[in-house]
């Protein structure tokens, strides 16, 4: 598990970013209200070597008893997915998973199969990994606070890159590797990005698909905020794959294969999209954001999300990244 010092480092990264944003907005507001001779750029250039980030704000828990049962189910479904993402990114960035204190709750608590630190060769990618890990840990903490005693425990999670790992099973199904090949998402920067695309794209569509089921307006607003963060993560990962794919076209090919495999699993609608460029008004355009014709990201039902998470197009309750299934009332995938 991730030790206390590393956990504090994870949350400090998120806290520092929030504090810097607040500081910028305060300075920007002062600059805008100043005389015409002053500028925002000048204000932002002030010396502030003694600046220290404020501690992370403590979220105000919403007692689960005050939430509609449907909202509790939606949040617990999201919490299961956040357990998966948080462990993947935290292992990759820091070499260990979630602290045990963030994994207890109702239902059977499961362990994590696989996961290890990535020896990143690109310092920027390593920095992105640490930021995403911090965000995903914060999501787990936030959802658990809102749910209180109704929060489900972390289920058994498979994020292994070996022959029997969920990532290998997904890569074989997608044709990224052959039937006897393995896919290790911790072996390189590029593999980590492909593994992140597989998971984070699904997270975005999961929040989008669940939004209409949330009754509490405060929770809906929070879920919209988490969706936005997941979308930033997804866009960043897809952008990196697109740019690296200029020199390594196999990256784009494999990203497209992952997209096609997800489409084959979740339903009969061809709504998932890879990252290969498209033509718009006769010119080449990137495909960083998977949207519909109205420029809106599509959503997946919980059943469709679990088709991908379980790596099974049928109606099942376990498999793939969740070998014993999810904890909570939302557990089953749907038959395509």
TrEMBL record:
<dbReference type="Pfam" id="PF13668">
    <property type="entry name" value="Ferritin_2"/>
</dbReference>
<dbReference type="InterPro" id="IPR052965">
    <property type="entry name" value="Pigment-catalase-like"/>
</dbReference>
<protein>
    <recommendedName>
        <fullName>Ferritin-like domain-containing protein</fullName>
    </recommendedName>
</protein>
<feature type="region of interest" description="Disordered">
    <location>
        <begin position="46"/>
        <end position="65"/>
    </location>
</feature>
């Amino acid at each position: 598990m991730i030790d206390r010092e590393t956990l504090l480092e994870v949350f400090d990264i998120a806290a520092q970013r929030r504090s810097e944003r607040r500081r910028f907005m305060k300075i920007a507001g002062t600059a805008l209200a100043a005389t015409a001779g002053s500028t925002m750029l000048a204000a932002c250039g002030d010396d502030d070597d003694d600046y220290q980030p404020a501690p992370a704000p403590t979220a105000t828990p919403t007692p689960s008893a005050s939430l509609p049962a449907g909202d509790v189910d939606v949040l617990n479904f999201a919490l299961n997915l956040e357990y998966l993402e948080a462990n993947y990114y935290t292992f990759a960035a820091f070499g260990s998973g979630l602290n045990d204190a963030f994994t207890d709750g109702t239902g059977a608590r499961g362990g994590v199969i696989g996961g290890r630190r990535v020896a990143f060769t690109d310092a920027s990618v390593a920095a992105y990994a640490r930021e995403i890990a911090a965000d995903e840990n914060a999501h787990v903490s936030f959802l658990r606070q809102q749910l209180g005693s109704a929060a489900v425990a972390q289920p058994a999670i498979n994020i292994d890159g070996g022959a029997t790992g969920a990532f290998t099973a997904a890569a074989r199904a997608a044709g990224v590797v052959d039937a006897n090949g393995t896919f290790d998402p911790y072996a390189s920067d590029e593999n980590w990005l492909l593994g992140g695309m597989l998971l984070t794209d699904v997270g975005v569509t999961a929040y989008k698909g669940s939004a209409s089921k949330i009754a509490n307006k405060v929770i809906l607003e929070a879920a919209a905020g988490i969706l936005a963060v997941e979308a930033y993560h997804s866009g960043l990962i897809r952008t990196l794959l697109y740019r690296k794919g200029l020199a390594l076209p196999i990256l784009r090919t494999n990203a497209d294969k992952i997209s096609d495999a997800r489409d084959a699993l979740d339903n009969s609608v061809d709504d998932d999209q890879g990252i290969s460029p498209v033509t718009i008004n006769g010119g080449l355009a990137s495909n960083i954001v998977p949207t519909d014709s109205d420029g809106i990201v599509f959503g997946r039902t919980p059943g469709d999300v679990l088709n991908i998470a379980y790596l099974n197009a049928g109606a099942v309750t376990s498999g793939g990244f969740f070998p014993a299934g999810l904890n909570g009332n939302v557990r089953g995938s749907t038959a395509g």
